[in-house]
Amino acid sequence: MPRSSLLSALTALRLSPRPLHIVMVGWEWPPHHTGGLGVHSFELARELTRLGHRLTFLTPFTGPFTPVDGVTIRFPGAPERDAPAEFPTAYWAGGTPDSPFWNATDGYNSWVAQVAGVADADVIHVHDWFGTEGAIALARRLRRPLVMTVHSTEYDRSLGHPWDHILRREQIGIDAADRVIAVSRHLRLQLVERYHADPGKVRVVYNAVRPNERLAEIDPKRRVVLYVGRLAAMKGVDTFLRAAARVVPQFPDALFVIAGEGSEYSRLLHLTAALGIGDRVMFLGKVSEEERELLLAGSSVFVLPSVVEPFGIAALEAMAAGVPTIVSKTSGIAEISSGVFQVDFWDVEEFASRIAELLEYPTLRRAMGEQGRWEALREGWPERAREVVSVYLEAMEAYRPP
Asked: What's the whole-number mean pLDDT along residues 289-299?
C-alpha cells in the first residue's frame, strides 16, 4: 500500500503508524496557570503520552512543573544555566501594547525558532497566538507540519476592539498551519469568516474534564451560586452581579461567590456596592485546584454568563461535579450539552429567573446535576487526544515542504 493511502486509512481509524514526537509550543503548565489553556495542555499531553507518543513542551515560564511521564518541558534559560523567569505578568493582568511584555513575547518566539534538540520532531503544535511566530519558524527550519489550536480569538477577548499586535500573530498562525483546531463549532465559523481560514483545514476538538471521585456526590449545605473564571469584560461577571441583585430578595440565605482575578475586579467591586448586595457577594480572588473542588462540592448553582466564550471549561468542570449549570448561549459548551440552562448573555432577568428556579426546587437541581455530570463525562481527554492525533496525521499527510 502506498504511504499516502496507509496514512489516510490510519487517519480514519485515529491511529498512528508509530509513536510520534510532538513539539508543543505552549504557554502555561500546572501547577501555575491562570486559565483553561494550562489545564488543556496538561491533560492533552498526559493522554498523548499514554497513547505512546513523546512530547516536548515549550513554555516561557520557569517551574516548578507538575511532572508527566513522556513529557520534557523546556523553557528559555534551562537547562544550560540557572536563570530567573524571563517573562512578566500576562497581558490580561494589566499589560499594554507598549509594555515590556511585547519584548518578552518576541524573545520567547526567537528562542522557540532556534530551540535545539528537537530535530526528530514529527509535528509542531502551537496553542493560541503567543508562540505563532516562533512555531512557524521552527516548523520551516525542521521541515515539519504545523498544527495550531485556537482556544479564543482577540476579537472575543477584546469584545470587538482587538490589539493589532495579537491579531497579526493569530492571523499568521492560522494562515501558516497545515491544520487548525478550534474548540467549538462557533469558533470554527469565526476563523473561517473573520480570519478567512480554509474550511477544509479547520477541525473541531472540544475540551474535556477528568472525573473526580471526591465530587461525585454533591449535597450542598448552603445555597451558594458560584462563578469561577477570569474577571474580564468578555466573561460577563457584571450580568452575574445584576442577576444576583434580583435574586437576593427572594432568598435571604443565598451567597454569590466569585472566584478569580483580573482587570475588571475594581469595577465589579464598585458595581456590587452600587447594587446594594455587598454583604451577599464574596470575591475570593485566585483559588487553587483543591479550593475550586471544595467550592464546587458546596455549590447549588454554577453560572457562566460570558458575552463570548469559545468553550467554557469551568462550566464543564461544574457539570462533572454534578452542579446544575447555567451558561450563555454564546458558550461553546452549549453546543454539546442539553443538560444546562442556556440564556442570552444580555438577559439579566432570565439569568435571575433560572437561578431562582434552581435554588427553589431541589429535585430540579438534582436532576440537572445528574444529567450534566453524565454529559460532561461521557467523553473525556482520552477521546480528545485520539482526535488530536487524527489531526496530526492529516497534517503530516497534507504537508508539502516549501
From this structure: 85
